[in-house]
Specification:
Protein name: Uracil phosphoribosyltransferase
InterPro entries: DUF6341 (IPR045922)
Structural class: mainly alpha
GO molecular function, one term: glycosyltransferase activity
Strand content: under 5%
Keywords: Glycosyltransferase, Membrane, Transferase, Transmembrane, Transmembrane helix
Pfam family, one: DUF6341
Helix content: over 70%
Shape: elongated
């Protein structure tokens, strides 16, 4: 049974966490390169938020949304 858990340990430490170990070592020499993936995700989220706000503005200008306060039964 001990060999089974040591196999799981080896799998996680050498295979699954290899990218994390690489990024941890890279951060000591090149901070920006190590955080490049975070910058990419922030850029994608920023673009998505801008797109979402533009779509909300378009629907608001068309007046398609039901903004009546009696639209929900819990507000009666």
């Amino acid at each position: 049974m001990k060999a089974f858990f040591e196999g799981i340990q080896w799998l996680f430490e050498t295979i699954f966490f290899a990218l994390h170990d690489f990024l941890r070592e890279l951060e000591l020499t090149h901070w920006f390169a190590a955080n490049l993936l975070n910058w990419i995700f922030m850029a994608i989220c920023s673009v998505a938020i801008v797109y979402w706000c533009k779509q909300l503005k378009i629907y608001d200008e068309k007046g398609e949304e039901n903004q009546d306060t009696t639209a929900h039964s819990f507000l009666k």
